[in-house]
Amino acid sequence: MCEQIGRDKEGNGSNVTAHDEDYESATAEPAKPPRPKDPLAEASPISQFLFMWPYPLLKLGMKRALEESDLPEISEADTSAANRIYFEKLWEEEKRQNPNNPRLDRAILKDFVKSMWYVQPMYMLAAVAKVSQAVALGLLIEAFEDDNGQGYLWATVIVMGSLALLAEHHHSFFFTWRKGMRLRIAAIASIYYKSQRLSSTHQDTSANYGQIMNLASNDVERFMLAALFCSHLIWAPLQCIAILCVGWVLLGPAFAAGVALLVVGFIPLQMYLSRRFVHFRGRIAAITDTRVNFVSQAVYGARVMKMSGFEWRFLDRIQDYRAKEVDQIVRANRLKAWNEALFFCANVVISVVIFLVHVASGETLTPRDVFTTFTLVNIIQIEMTKHLSLGVMGVSEAFVSLKRIQNFLEFPELPYATSQTIERASSNSKQHGDCCLSLKSVNCNWNDVETVQAKSDQSTVGSTEDMPALTDVSLDFNRGQLTCLVGAVGSGKSAMLQALVGELPVKSGVIGRNYSSLAYAAQDPWIMDGTVKENIMMGKDFDAEWYDRVVNSCSLNVDFKQLRDGDETVVGDRGVQISGGQRARIGLARALYKDADILVADDPLSAVDSKVGRQLFQEAIMNLSVNRGKCTVLATHQHQHIGDHRCVLIVAGRVAHIGSYEECVAASGGKLSAHAKDDSAVDNLDGGDDKSTMPPGVAKEEEHVAAESNLLDDANGDIEGKEIKQSGLVKLETYANYLRAMGGLWVGAAMLALFSITQASVLVTIGTVGRWAERPADQQNSWAILGLVIGLSSAVVILAVSRAMLSLELTVKASQRLHDRMAKSLLRAKIEFFDTNPMGRILNRVSADVGSNDDLLPQTLFDFCVIAFIVLGAVATTVTVLPFTLLAFPPLVWYFLSVRKTFVTSTRELKRLESLARSPIFAMLGESLGGIATIRSNQSLGYFRKKFEEAHDAHTRAFYAFIAASRWVGFRMDAIMFLFLTLVAYLSVLFQQEGWFDVDPAILGLSLSMLLQLAGLFQWCIRQSAEVVNQMVAVERVLEFGDLESEAPLELDGDEELTGKGWPSTGAVKCDGLAARYRPSLPLALNQISFEIPGGARVGVVGRTGSGKSTVVQTLFRLLEAEEGTLSIDGVDVSKLGLHALRTKISVIPQVPTLFSGCTVRENLDLFGCHSDAEIQSALDDAHLGDVVAALPKGWDSIVSEGGSNFSVGQRQLLCLARAILSNNRILVLDEATASVDRRTDEMLQDALQESFKEGTIIAVAHRLETIIDYDIVLVLGHGRVLEWGSPAKLLTDGGAFASMVNDTGDSMSAELRKRAFSQQKEQGGGDVEA
């Protein structure tokens, strides 16, 4: 037994050792051209003050489309790693200070106050400047009326106030925006790190993909708004009090009445609306989680969905979730519309109320009073109804998001070693004997997790449901020894391996560990999106000699010759570009390349044929691991290889017997069937198929095909290409499509008219109030003028509300139509689309881009239109009353156009780069969730974290460049308005004093008060116009996925006529000269194949890896359309049918067993509730899963974990079998369906299939020849051609390719297979089926 050695606090097994050591061992990349340095770090004080430092990048963007390599480096403080560490420190400090009730929102708020103190004096400067301007405006108008010679003084005060605001606004905005960005970076990085600590074996805590995606895409965006506006929660009330004092001096109690209306009426109403809005935000986020998760299920199970004909059912479910989501968004937007309308008309309504009270109390209005009041009220209105409400909304939404993020951060984790469960030796502890792993009375439960409790600082291990995985296991594993774990499906073999690698928590007992490293090859091999070489090395240093030995022993050298780029071939998301056998061999090669002290392999031989299986066992597992003194643990159903090696029988999570293979079979009580030992020598596979077994002429053809596949044209070579970046202008067609989705051209024209009329009504109202103030005192009480002012004010309110309601309603409806179009297009896309696009990329469009169209674009578009009309109104008014200002227009307009062009051209590309840089973040989140057990067990966390941080920093570079560009343009636009205001102020004084032009004080007041309003609004208008263009990129991306190349029609008019009722009645399949290829640039995958299957026959399809077996299945289902030839069922050419008429009549059990996570077991069998409970129970019993499902905590209502990880791979295949039995079709296709089950279970399943489909046609693709040796017919394929066809006995007698494959299984197995084949022939009376 291993001695009990020092305790490892870091991890339950080898899974968490050296997390960060792997940083150094990441694969060295070729040198890239140096990236530009951070321009802000090297900028001079003047450059920083005037925001000149972003210009070099914008200048480059004018010359050519910006590329990712053009983006400058970010500072250390903006990196993913730095912000995550900072964020985690804050959270740990909060937990230490408030152990009973830690709150992430409190920790973040305290940090914000401490770290952003230097912004507060800027806000104070801005407040003083705004009030001074308002007072100076009134005094300037008075100077005009009295001609007192003080015009220049007050004009200077106005100009200096504008200069102070110009300096303050952009710097405070930049600092707070950057803080928001850092919070977002920290949250995303922390979510990623947390996802790597989740349990891979707990059904409730493997948080669903959709929820994590939503947290990392939508929730984190709330920090930006909160950071920008939370300071206004203090400064807005302070400014309000200061202005009340100034107003009291000016107009007395009347001004207080107006402020009271604002404070008692408008603000509480806005607060209420904001609170309600946050309530809806939480509900919307939950529905979005569900919708995105369901779409991820459709993408993940695209093959199953299409083969089962479930597209419309999935679409209905997605659209149903979407309709609920949009219903909540529309209701939230109605509140938002009231908010917008209140903001727009508050200035007019409150000012008019002040003037009415003032006149009613017997006082007289003057133009000075009117325009000072308008300006002061405008300041209060912007601060209290816009900035304050944005602050409340931003902070409220951020608190909701932080609560959701905190809940996720407190999710139960994989328990890292508690003191009684793990003992670990030092790396040089050879003195402790040959024992590497020692289990003593170990008990494990599936649902054990480390609860990250809020109540105490100590984490505790708890269990939600008592689900035993291993019971009282005591076992040793020694160096240089192979231990084979055997047992029926679901007996606990994988559970044992997961306990050994540290993925299954130890409830009680001790696992003694005496090694320095461990490697793990999972049963369901996890493949990351990258090259084959990257998958094998997984961040380790490249050792050419060892790499070649590993690759050759796993028979991958043969595959490299066939792959276009050899080991540099990109395998695609989840390895979709390669076969199941290739995935299994890459997974094993990865574990071997690690050259660890212990190799743990979970059934790596099930997905390959017997010849390759023998090579993997003898050359890879024996030669590279066992014979080199490694401790090797192998769970397998390929018992022919076990021979004299140590064998452990596992039954129901207990060790039932330890001894020889024969002893374990005897001890199994009939649950295992004995396999004959395979003593054959390994053949050299480096020539592909044994060409001696091929018909004359075929061998030569094969060489030609292999050569052709190496010469694929480069244009289509990059199967798993990068996401395509559109460049240049957002196309006019995109705007036209968006307008159509809103309701068409007439709707657009009507909205334009409504915006014009609303803005005109405001100008007329203010002008009328100015004229009212110019009337003699005795005429100011006249009902004619009072009625006109009240009527106009009411019109402003009605128009403002109507405009906001209609705008936001129409834009959200447009987003819904675009989403539904995309969802339909996505589900109808060809299977090639899902094979060549990572899930993260697809979900980026479904979550982030749709979220942008739902939330950001409607608000931005509305903002832009409102402000654009305010700007046009102000400039038009100024030019009308002061025509001499036209002199300043040409230079200012020229500068404005050149700045805007520079900004829009460059930021459009920056926004696109930012969108593209977002996809890898989501892809890595999804990828790491799927492969967390493999990543942790192989100590590759450091490598993946480094990869994630690189992807995250790439996104930050694009986003930071966009922020910098926004400040560059904002500063310049406000500078233009500052110059224009300076000209108007000084020229009007000059012209008045010199008597060159008679300036009407009332109209000058209107003009200057509007121009003061434009100080911040004009640059906001230009930035919003660019932001609309940038956000249209999301519309463009959604539209792009709305026009994907579709499969053939699902239904055709002639379907019923062609098939009639009860088709297919016999299930006869005829294939005549069928040819098919995966892509135009690739060689034929099926080359003129012909065969005929009688109705009710059982047909086995066999052949080497890559022979075309799975291609036949895809062509039968028309996932791959035939290029020539025909395929007919019961005499009906399937190419003439709608896809549903064909696919719903064939049942399938796919090669990769696909379960829908987040759904119950019952929903996985019957996703759309078409079957009764009795039918479902019967199907489960037939698949030998009745007891397994009954033992789950909630029976068939138990939730399936992400990727089906709470079932063994064998059990997942059995669930897919039960699903097929339920469909009860005349034709059943099995694509390697029993590869991961033991021989005894396989035999029972074949009996169940025979019973359930006794009159049906069964077509089984198989590597294990014992599965199909009893079948009626065997079809042998080689490189896309039919090599042989006939009964097993006939083919064995002929001595061709099939006989060669049987011989490859080894002498004992070969003899048994021949015996079964000939006895089957005798039972059938010696008949045979001819091609």
UniProtKB/TrEMBL annotation:
Compartments reported by the entry: Membrane
UniProt-annotated stretches for the region Disordered: 1-39, 678-697
Highest rank taxon of the organism: Eukaryota
Residue ranges occupied by any ABC transporter domain in the UniProt entry: 452-694, 1069-1304
SMART domains tied to this protein: AAA
Keywords: ATP-binding, Membrane, Nucleotide-binding, Repeat, Transmembrane, Transmembrane helix, Transport
Primary localization: membrane
Organism: Seminavis robusta
Gene3D superfamilies, per the entry: ABC transporter type 1, transmembrane domain, P-loop containing nucleotide triphosphate hydrolases
Family per record: Belongs to the ABC transporter superfamily. ABCC family. Conjugate transporter (TC 3.A.1.208) subfamily.
Name assigned to this protein: Multiple drug resistance-associated protein-like transporter 1
Residues passing through the membrane, by range: 122-141, 153-175, 223-249, 255-273, 341-360, 745-770, 782-801, 866-897, 975-991
UniProt cross-references to InterPro entries, sorted A to Z: AAA+_ATPase (IPR003593), ABC1_TM_dom (IPR011527), ABC1_TM_sf (IPR036640), ABC_transporter-like_ATP-bd (IPR003439), ABC_transporter-like_CS (IPR017871), ABC_transporter_C-like (IPR050173), ABCC_6TM_D1 (IPR044746), ABCC_6TM_D2 (IPR044726)
Gene Ontology cellular component terms for the protein in this record: membrane
PROSITE patterns cross-referenced by the UniProt entry: ABC_TM1F (PS50929), ABC_TRANSPORTER_1 (PS00211), ABC_TRANSPORTER_2 (PS50893)
